[in-house]
Design brief:
Helix content is about 65%, strand content about 0%. The protein has helices at about 10-20, 30-35, 45-60, 75-95, 105-115, 125-130, 135-145, 150-155, 165-175, 185-195, 210-225, 230-245, 245-260, 265-295, 300-325. The longest helix has about 30 residues, at about 265-295. It starts with 8 loop residues before the first helix and ends in a 14-residue tail after the last helix. InterPro entries: Haem_Oase-like_multi-hlx. This is Heme oxygenase-like protein. It comes from Micromonospora pisi. It holds the Pfam family Haem_oxygenas_2.
Length: about 350
Amino acid sequence: MRLPVGRGPASAMLVEALSGVPGRLSFDAVERWRTDGSVDVAAIGDEDLQLFLFTCYELHYRGWDGVDERWEWEPSLLAVRAVAEHRFESALRRVVGPVPAVEAADVPAALGTLVADDDGPSLAAELHRRGDLARFREFVAQRSVYHLREADPHSWGIPRLDGPAKAALVEIQMDEYGHGQLPRMHAELFRDTMRWLGLDTGYHAYVDSVPAVTLAANNLISLFGLHRRWRGALLGHLAAFEMTSSLPNRRYGDALRRLGGPPEATRFYDEHVVADAVHEQIATYDLCGSFAAAEPARAADVLFGAACCLTLDRLVAEHMLASWARERSSLRLPIALGH
């Protein structure tokens, strides 16, 4: 997987540095993030910041072609990344707003209320009613950044848990990974959808094409997953993800069938209609409920993670729908078809 093209001074500096041997990085390119004391929600849509973080985080997943693997734990890179993360976290807190205090026993009910109160636009409804192949292909390219490594970011939580919460997370992740059968892994089912649409199924093939807000939605899970202090937020994110999945995936599958998609193209969405209806209950009660009972001081973190998930999903949907309303692509670059 080739390094992305920089989108500003910080990401360009990082990409250039990663092309060489590990060495000390300067704070110069990120100085504006460190010295600016304001809390700017625009950081979520900052192309330079989000690509910088995404490029850093990928070092902890599958890495970049030609990049020395020692960069993953280069102290100066971690220090510079922390500056970008602080900027991102501050923006998240501002856009999400304060999370109400909650008793540990009330976490499942509070998650239900949070999801029920979410009034973001329905991307699934738009594609179900009016989506054509071009827009569906664009939507799938956007989602490929997550779905081609589906479950991996949340799996960072497994070694950070114990007891019932750990067992619940493993139960959910086993489904995501197809119970060890490659053709049933959700990432592989998504590749089948991409192939039918004529898209490039390569891992992160569309990173250069997607906008900052899409990268931010992916960076959010990595931020929570890679920091033990955010383990509660990671679980809340997963719960919100599962609780808002079944109905949209039914609509995506029906939309693709309307567009002529065969069973192998719609199987990814059909699988999630069934699996996520079960995962919703596991994630809400067995995962988040058990975690909050074991670590009541982190109950609010669970709600924060869920609120972040819903907020960034809403921002991604708003971006795509607004772009389409103007008869414009929601992507930065045209889609390259597969091979």
